[in-house]
UniProtKB/TrEMBL annotation:
Cofactor annotation comment: Binds 1 potassium ion per subunit.
Record protein name field: tRNA modification GTPase MnmE
Entry superkingdom: Bacteria
Localisation per UniProt entry: Cytoplasm
Amino acid sequence: NGYTPSTKTIAAISTPQAPGGIGIVRISGPQAKEIAGKVFLSRHGKTLEEINGYTALYGRVHDGETDIDEAIALNFTAPASFTGEDVVELSCHGGLYIMRRVLKAVFAAGAVPAGPGEFTRRAFLNGKIGLTEAESIMQIISAQGEQAAKAALAGHDGALEKKIIRIRGMLIEAAAHLSAWADYPEDDIPEVNPEILETTLLTVKSEIETLLRQFDAGRAIREGVATVIAGRPNVGKSTLMNLLAGCERSIVTEYAGTTRDIVEDTVILGDVPLCLSDTAGIHITNDPVEKIGVDRARGKLREAQLVLAVFDSSQELNEEDRELISAIRDSSAIAVVNKSDLPPAIDIKYIKKHFQQIVYISALSGDGLQEMRDAVAEVLRTSELNPADGILFTERQRDDARRAGDCVREALTAVESGVTLDAVTVSIEGAVSALLELTGERASEAVVDSVFSHFCVGK
Ligand code: GDP
Ligand code: ZN
């Protein structure tokens, strides 16, 4: 990628996430061994420079005057290291104070401080990892929850990159065929069959659309979903909230309209963190205090990414229920038909007409909780998420995939309307170029900079 190797040797504390009290100072660059040799003395009095070929050495780190700590020096010779450069890692078991002294000694010996993400950046520039892989390293560092970590790991294994390269391959083949035929129509290159071309484009389009859909599902798992529990007083919102939270959070009472304030909590339902808020109803009221609650509830409903609309199955639907149904017409919503343990009186046909997802539950007994998990996974499409398949997990990746998708749609329109094949080729090339940017093979320096600027020092 036309990158000239850095002449600077960088160092930083890059302590792993694993506990155990071990701290690591990582040194990377052409002078890594020389610099490490100035601060590290092996037990047998050998310096690192003399011990090429050793991978690990036990000894002591010193600052030229005094010993700082005992240490193990791990030696990686270019290009067989994380960054692709010569790397020495000094592992000490000191705390932060000791590690800072070690780092200071390393700087005094000639290393310069590593910038945020600079080790990973060098790994990328030296072709050790792809851009999407670098992004997934960052995701792993900040991942919350098992599924999120899995999704990030999938990027780490290069699943996304493999998928993008496969999709791009289909496009490149189509474009190559098109241009060969356009350039040498008199040769015996078989004529481009518009139907086959169309099939290829449709396949690519659907793969990109799946990736884009799954981006939202992946984000739901990583970042959580703003969820509102809505419903008129006494349908069982607080009880549902408590069931989901597994503890007594809201105040449950026998009297209607107790929950004035929005009560919030985050629960993990299935794989998905839901940031729940329990609202006051959205009934029409003249009470000024209640009115504030109702207005806030409407605001929350508009902002919600998911609405759990709770109804009391033992009661007939009333005006307030219908008002809620109409207020969430355009939202992602699940009808939660509560109190399934009581004799039913609700007009379920009306509910069915307005909701695609209906869950019958008894918030009191917990019956129907599994159905609730399934419905949430269905609405947020997290059930169809298979990280091992490769998923988009940053907005940068999503934007590039979107652009590629737009170009493919353009190409399809061109094929279908029978315009010149040149126009089709241009659109396909646009898609290929967007996908090259996605994997980082043709990403601008600004893009690369912005990816690594989010890293912390030492990674
Ligand atoms: P909210 O006003 O919508 O928050 O309703 P609450 O959660 O405060 O519940 C109102 C009343 O309904 C309480 O007495 C609850 O015990 C009761 N309740 C809630 N869920 C159920 C249920 O599934 N079955 C039965 N039988 N009662 C329930
Ligand atoms: Zn309540």
